[in-house]
Design a protein that fits this description.
Jelly Rolls, seven-stranded mixed β-sheet, 3 helices, 26% helix
């Protein structure tokens, strides 16, 4: 084997190793971002359980469900804003229509923005100070009969 052939083989091996390590690194990032927690929404129609990803850091909250094309109906994303304040959400780079549920610190639902428009940069305000926002697939709030004042149970919320 010539030196040139050996060098080309070594370069291919190094490139393959780099791609594998990059894939592993990115994969570990996805696992960390997709830690699943249990959450229950309590409405007049009963208790409705969801598996949620909880976004706690500014970087996680900024990305949210952007660039995803699918979310199972039993899943959701809970945004923890760490303090009670007015918040606004938007749908930029979000391909899935969502119901956004704005939640007070005691776990009571303050407001529901149903069937949000994918890819829109229009802001969706909480309407009052809240601690959190739960995003689920569009239509779920209506299907479970969710209304302002209903309760969300998760370790993030401290009932009165």
């Amino acid at each position: 084997m010539t030196r040139q052939a050996q060098w080309a083989g070594a370069q291919r091996l190094a490139s393959l190793a780099f791609v594998m390590l990059a894939g592993l690194w990115l994969g570990l990032g996805q696992v960390a971002a997709q830690t699943i927690e249990k959450l229950t929404v309590v409405t007049a129609s009963g208790r409705h359980d969801f598996d949620v990803e909880v976004m706690r850091t500014p970087e996680e909250r900024a990305k949210g469900l952007m660039f995803r094309h699918f979310m199972p109906n039993h899943r959701g994303m809970l945004f923890d804003f760490q303090r009670v304040e007015p918040v606004s959400m938007w749908m930029q780079n979000t391909y899935i229509s969502l119901d956004m549920i704005f939640i007070r610190a005691d776990g009571s639902v303050a407001r529901i923005a149903e069937r949000t428009e994918p890819l829109s940069t229009r802001t969706i305000p909480s309407g009052e100070p809240v601690l959190s926002v739960l995003e689920v697939n569009a239509g779920i709030a209506e299907r479970i009969g969710l209304k302002p004042g209903d309760r969300v149970e998760h370790s993030l919320f401290k009932p009165r």
